[in-house]
Amino acid sequence: MNQSDLTSILPLTILTVWACALLLVDLFIPKTRKGITALLSALGLAVTLGFTVSQVGSEVSGFNGMVVLDGFSVFVNALLLVSGLLGVALAYGYVKRMGIERGEYYTLLLFSVVGMMLMAQAADLIVVFLALELLSIPLYVLAAFTRNKAESEEAGLKYFLLGAFSSGFLVYGIALIFGATHTTNIFAIVSAASTSTGGLLLTIGAALLLIGFGFKTATVPFHMWTPDVYQGAPTAVTAFMASGAKIAGFAALLRVFATAFPSLAVDMTDIFWALSALTMIVGNFVAISQTDIKRLLAYSSIAHAGYILMAFVPYGNDAVRDVSIAAGLFYLVAYVFTNFGAWGVVIALEKEAGKGLALNDYAGLSKRHPALAAAMAVFMISLIGFPPTLGMVGKFYLFRAVLDGGFVWLAIIGVLTSIVSAFYYLRVVVIMYMRDGEPTAERETWLDLTTAVTALVTVIVSFVPQFLFAWASEAVLKLF
Amino acid sequence: MESFSLTLLIFFPLVGILVLLLLPNENRNTLRWTALIASLVAFGISLWVLTLFKSSNPNLQLVEKYNWITVAGWNIQYHLGIDGLSVLLVLLTTLLTPISILSTWTAVEERVKEYMIFFLLLEIGMNGVFLAQDLFLFYIFWEFTLVPMYFIIGIWGGPRRIYAALKFFLYTMAGSILMLLAILWLGVNGGTFSLPDLIQQGGIPANVQWLLFIAFAAAFAIKVPMWPLHSWLPDAHVEAPTAGSVILAGVLLKLGTYGFVRFNLPLFPEATLQAAPWIALLATIGIIYGAAVSYAQADIKKLVAYSSVSHLGFVMLGLFALNPEGISGAILQMINHGVSTGALFLLVGMIYEQTHTREFKVYGGLWKITPVYGTIMLIVVLSSMGLPGLNGFVGEFTILLGAWGAGQSGVFYWGNVWFAAISALGVIMAAIYMLYLFQKMFLGPQGDVVEETKKHGHAIRDLNWREIVTMIPLLLLIFWIGLYPAPFFNLMAPAVNHLVGMLPLP
User: Fold this and answer.
1) Model-level ipTM above the cut of 0.90
2) How far is A316 from chain B (nearest CA, A)?
3) For chain B, what are the domain ranges?
4) Is A470's CB within 8 Å of B71's CB?
5) A469, B69: Cβ pair inside 8 Å?
6) B268 to each of A376, B59, B208, B275, how far by Cα in Å?
7) Kind and range of the H or E element at B82?
8) Sign of CA dihedral A232, A237, A243, A246
């Protein structure tokens, strides 16, 4: 183990050690004061974020090329750590209120973040698999965290079974790729693929990988588990899952395909095209008929996976790759802030025993809690992709990448499905502002703060997106 | 100060919004006065901008241009400018906003604070659209205007307000989102989003021009709205609160026609020339159709709403005549329509506030009871139908002159002078439905509405001082433009000639 090995996994090490220590420290924290664990885990995430930010611009590869630290992974790591922080902030009051406050919640969350970060840095298919399991297993547990509630158990079990199933696809894909190229290192695959004759095996292997990632990122037709799991899991977990797991899945997908399979771009571009279009269409259309806010946001997250997938379509085209990666990353940032904010509002309105989650429970929110309603309106407008919000800037960037790649029809499908999405997002606004009701909302400092910060970021950064644009465009993949 | 006068003009209402946010909800009059004063100051700023504006200069003036997003291959600027095409529309916006606020003094009693905030936000968006010279900036303002209007219709509108608000939002968004792709294509291929630079570069291949023209035209045509894309308009107008209708008819529809002049004509000159007869055909159909449907309405507000389809048809006909008469007539007619139809909506709202009905069949004989109201209505009705000496005549006459000229010079190809000839019928039809409106409301035997209103505990009263004050600026404009339109034409003439000079006319 030399110095570059250490540097490449420095943030990972810090967070892992912190999580392990927290597991021990938590034993000495009295049951009634588990808030301390939450604060300590947030501190761990913040410290790691500090180290990650200090790594901007560095490019190291460690452990014989199994792990890389490049602009891309630093960007994704930072985003994941921010998601972790927002996840802790949302959970702080929620778990207390729902009677599921246990110290493990936060340690599991930290371990999951570690897995996600490893996923963004993985340069070897074995490490990808390892990271996938490391991020998934804590999430299975977290999804079932409300032990005494059948829905939560169902969510955990469903997520676990389908997750295990998808891991099977992934591992089988890795095996086939190894068979075709005699290596699992993504940089070595490229050179092997150009000389070897196992073309078909490689293609099938890559396709199986895509299925495995498709499950994790909830793209159609691998999305069936999403609404049930998102609905059944504790809302704070859902919020974290919807952002973190998606970011990690897309990061790994992007790195593996752009690095290892540029030679397959001819076939894969069409597949990505179809997946993206299908995901946008199904996600948005099915969302229209939802009456439960958690299911609505679940389908919305599926639809957004489709938009993010647009960035993958031109992955084999050297001229546009960097633009589309930057666009995808920027869109992820927009999605994370908007998504966490929206889930924050859901948490504020959720009551014991799954009450307060129907869309109609939002009636009259603008009169009772004008600030909360205004924040939710901002998030909905951002999810539509309307100014003045980050969602609009994100879509602008994304459509540009797609147009640059010459996929005009995909862009047109993207804008048309955006109109469809406006219909159901606006329904939330209609109910909050134009119907009468007497909703009650939980006001809790950390929750309010999260909602306020995400709403402000969503609006303000849309006017000054320069630094994020610049950072995303420099966050290119390290290609050998 | 002059170097950022336009920024000040656009964003001054923000000051009002911040003050409103700090005020308590209960004190409604303070909220109303704050919004009114903020919008009056904005009007003052626009008058000051008018004094800085040199009408002899055909180019953009008071330009503000700063780099905004110039990283990662983007070249987006904060770029504002005003010229003869937009100066009158900006003045119209800043004038109609305080008038609308004044008109809702007693009509809106609930959630006054939010209402006023949305109006001021809307003003920011509208002025931004007229002044933005960067496509990205324009698009942001353009889409943003939808949001406050959506809330204004949806919260303070009539019984079917939610349906109307949603329809308005989705319809308009459907058009403009295709424009987004066109803007991206232009910005990325041209290397800049700056409109003047893109116009100067030119050289967009003809087949691409067509597609881009259609993408932009879809957004603008829905907003105008041109026949057959008008179906959102009657719903939105009928359900919107009075002030919402005033702004909707007065300014928001002009965003569409303005978009055609500002973007389609100079950016895609070849496609414009090819499209001219087709657009003129749709405009002519719109003129006749709008007029005929207006006459068939049983609801006063619906009649006024459909008359907009007809009037905006004239504007489109004038624009695509592609000669100085047509375009300047069209721009003047935008102002006229804003003034006259705005005034009509105000007047309908004033009586509706008392009677709570807009059905023609219950009205009649009101002139005896409300002489001031009747007289003002008569003036506005005559102005809207284009009586010589009032504003509507000047605009429509100039447009028809332009359309006739375009027919003769071959701009309308197969359409020849027929468009002008048929459209002239529209003027006569306007007289029919407008006089019908007046006759039904004010002449004849007394309608049931008088007794019905008494049952609610108050008799129908004539206009009060606030209402008269609301109307005075509009009445002055009606006479001023009708009797002495030269200053208005002078403001836009150089810019219009400059624009026409850019077109490859036959």
Assistant:
1) no
2) 20
3) 1-263, 268-462+477-485+502-506
4) yes
5) yes
6) 40, 19, 9, 10
7) strand B76-82
8) negative
